[in-house]
Amino acid sequence: MQLRHFPLRRTSGGAPTPAGEGAPPHDTRVFTVQRIGALAVAAVILVFGLLGFAGGLDFFSTDGEPIMGLSSNGLLSTVSVLTAVVLVAAALRSPRVASTVMIVVGTLFLVSALANLAVLRTSYNLLAFEIENVVFSVLAGLFLLLLGAYGRVSGNLPPDSPYARPRSDDVDDEPESFPSTPQEFAAERAMREAEIAVVNHVATADQRRRVDAMAQVRSRGDRRRVWMDFDAPSS
Fold first, then answer.
1. Model confidence at 28: pLDDT above 90
2. Helices then strands, each counted (H, E), the chain
3. What is the 3-state secondary structure (H, E, C) of the chain?
4. Mean pLDDT for the stretch of residues 138-149
5. Is the pTM of this model over 0.85?
6. Closest to 3 (Cα-Cα) out of 158, 215, 166
7. SS3 label, residue 46
8. Range in 1-10, 19-28, 129-138 the model is least confident about
């Protein structure tokens, strides 16, 4: 059986430590920024919604009343509180969920800004939007999108990114080589028999010698070549 060496990771003090022992597996600053961003936006719109409820606003009024420099009605207050609850729940659930929810909610903010801009000062203005609300929705949407995508949306993520696809040490860099000739198929069968014999402690001296030599290489194709080298006639 081949033994693999685990990479060493340096701590802030400079001393190497094995990966996974006392060192974070990724850069936690990305998660921290995303969580703080989600909670900050949630706090603003939560206060906005609660103040709307406290003012006893008409639920479906298209005129709206001024709240924190914006126009609001009962429906917009309800939507604001629900959105704040979703952001807080996502931030507390996990950073990855927070990032995904921030991207979705940020997109909805931008869509809402465009849609309500189209019905501004009409009978279809169910959320009682004014131009200030449109500007806030655009800014909040862009803020959520940027923070949600922070450290995540990239074609070349660094290894310490929490969103980088994990790479297993057991995956070979080169594609697996499969047997294609009768000699290679015969070598594969003999290799399996030898490996089973070594595990069951019934291997011959030649089988043990060959299995030990194969343990020095990683890919199956290289192991097969090592096995066949034992059968090659010596010059």
1. no
2. 7, 4
3. CCCCCCCEEECCCCCEEECCCCCCCCCCHHHHHHHHHHHHHHHHHHHHHHHHHHCCCCCCCCCCEEECCEEECHHHHHHHHHHHHHHHHHHHHCHHHHHHHHHHHHHHHHHHHHHHHHCCCCCCCCCCCCHHHHHHHHHHHHHHHHHHHCCCCCCCCCCCCCCCCCCCCCCCCCCCCCCCCHHHHHHHHHHHHHHHHHHCCCCCHHHHHHHHHHCCCCCHHHHHHHHHHHHCCCC
4. 93
5. no
6. 215
7. helix
8. 1-10
Q: How many Å apart are CA 229 and CA 127, to the nearest integer?
A: 78
10-26 pLDDT tens trace: 444 444 444 444 444 55
Q: What's the pLDDT score for residue 160?
A: 59
What gap in Å lies between CA 207 and CA 16, rounded to an integer? 39
Task: Supply 176's token pair.
Answer: 């697996």
Residue given tokens 């800014």 in the structure block: 139
Please give the structure tokens belonging to residue 154: 């990239």
pLDDT at 184: 82
- In the block, tokens 């057991």 appear at 170
Considering the chain, what percentage of its residues have pLDDT values greater than 70? 77
